[in-house]
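pasting for ref
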Amino acid sequence: MSGNRHKIPGAVRAKVEDARVARLATVDARLRPHIVPVCFTYDGKVFYTAIDQKPKRVAPDRLTRVRNILAVPQVALLIDKYDEDWTQLWYVLIRGKAKVLPTHKHRERAWALRKLRAKYPQYTETMLPNDAPIIRITPDRTAFWGKV
């Protein structure tokens, strides 16, 4: 396993950018963990994930991950590949600080939406509207292992 601050080497970055899903881990104010699969994009400095229009039981601002980030912004993002051939296994673990982007951050929100829509064709403007909540994850520490 290798670890460092902020820097993701080129070969690892390529795997991260190609990966289709990650797991976002948050904790609440009482340090109870919560983890969900997320779609994401990486721009070389920060990660973005959004609250899309897939059916949910509560309003976006009431989702556990959003409430947890507001209470405790430290998160982990796990990006990995499983294969029956264990020589092909790898993971990248990002630890960092998450923030729900405010609506007045027009330029950054537009950038994140463009990146997410480019990566995921399912994210049309109806599945990922312009006013969708966007979460930015700024890495503090990166660790990786396996065939990267």
